[in-house]
Amino acid sequence: MNTTTVSGLAAPRDGRALATGWPARIAIAGILALVILPLLPVGSFVLSIGTTAFITAIAAASLHLLIRTGHVSMGHAAFMGIGAYASVLVTMKLQLPFAAGLVAAFVAPAILALLIGPLVLRLAGKYFVLVTFLFGEIVRMVFVEWTTLTGGANGIPGVPPPHPRLLDPQAYYYFALGFAIVLIGFIARLLSSEIGRSIDAIREGENLAECSGVPVLRVKVCIFALSCGIVGIAGALQGHFIRYIDPTSFSMVQSLNLVVVNVIGGMYALVGPIIGTAFFMITPELLRDYVELQRVIFGIIIIVVIAFFPGGLVEIAQRRADALRGKRKVGP
């Protein structure tokens, strides 16, 4: 399998991180464990954490799709918010079913991404980061100021669940898990296809990819729109789960969290944002007894992980896999 070195880490070029080898086995075991978890004597709090983790994993994986083109967005949560508001307004104002709201949650941010993509995707590096940060702040201010539609700073309470049966925490847990499996599986399939190879070629060198016949800008705009549409679905799932949305849920801090999740897990393998989400959700709960120092300790842990494993937590697993292959080669 072709590889490219990123921060000293051999990362899959073709996006098959969830399709072959140890990641596939871990993914299957992890899905089985997640399916069984609600059947164990766990409380609604654990199920709530699990549901939130699935939604976060969808959002982080959607950002990963954009990162694979070589762009890191600091306004991704804004598109998540657009999806959330679109779904809530369609279901509450227009009295349409959740399915229609879900379609709106995908289409609204995807169309906006198609409109601005040809402009912002011509930028690179810090310029793209700065523009997406400003865009995220503009969208947040629209949420705050457009009170007649969004409820302003007070948000929109009383958001209905997708279905009355989904008021049960266990039911919504499985509902969100199903969406996570389908959407992340779709991203994995996309990255392992010819399109995925074009995406990685663009990240490694746009000029070379262009010379090889890859329509660079068109691919980047389409991936940008798809990424924003998927994170819009995550926003809809979050809004109907919490049953309340407001502008603070989709601020720059949330965009930064999605970037951190990808960096911690590993930016150039799809398993990275999944591992990063688990780390980001579970670690603060393990530090709950240290209330006053919880954020400080969590920040130190993040710094240590990034310092010692620049390829993310996935680098640990890959080093272990390489060590096992080495032992088999030199073994009796």
Can you give a write-up of this model?
With 332 residues, the chain is mainly alpha-helical. The protein has one domain: Orthogonal Bundle (ABC transporter involved in vitamin B12 uptake, BtuC), CATH 1.10.3470. 70% of the residues lie in helices and 4% in strands. The strands form 2 sheets. Strands 1-2 form a two-stranded antiparallel ribbon. Strands 3-4 form a two-stranded antiparallel sheet. The protein is globular and about 50 Å long. The two termini are 26 Å apart.
CATH topology: ABC transporter involved in vitamin B12 uptake, BtuC
Domains (count): 1
Backbone structural class: mainly alpha
Number of strands: 4
Major pleated sheet: 2 strands, antiparallel
Radius of gyration: 20 Å
Summarize model confidence as the mean pLDDT: 85
Query: Which CATH architecture?
Result: Orthogonal Bundle
User: Which percent range describes the beta-strand content?
Assistant: under 5%
Global shape: globular
Low-pLDDT sequence parts: 1-20
Q: How many individual helices? A: 14
What's the helix-strand series? EEHHHHHHEHHHHEHHHH
Condensed summary:
The chain is mainly α and 332 residues long.
What descriptors fit this protein?
332 residues, mainly alpha, ABC transporter involved in vitamin B12 uptake, BtuC, two-stranded antiparallel sheet, 14 helices, 4 strands, disordered N terminus
Question: How are the secondary structure elements laid out?
Answer:
Elements: E1 3-6, E2 9-12, H1 21-36, H2 44-67, H3 76-92, H4 98-120, H5 126-145, H6 147-150, E3 156-157, H7 169-191, H8 194-204, H9 206-211, H10 216-242, E4 244-245, H11 252-265, H12 271-286, H13 294-308, H14 314-330
Antiparallel strand pairs: 1-2, 3-4
Helix pairs in contact: 2-7, 2-10, 2-11, 2-12, 3-4, 3-5, 3-10, 4-10, 11-12
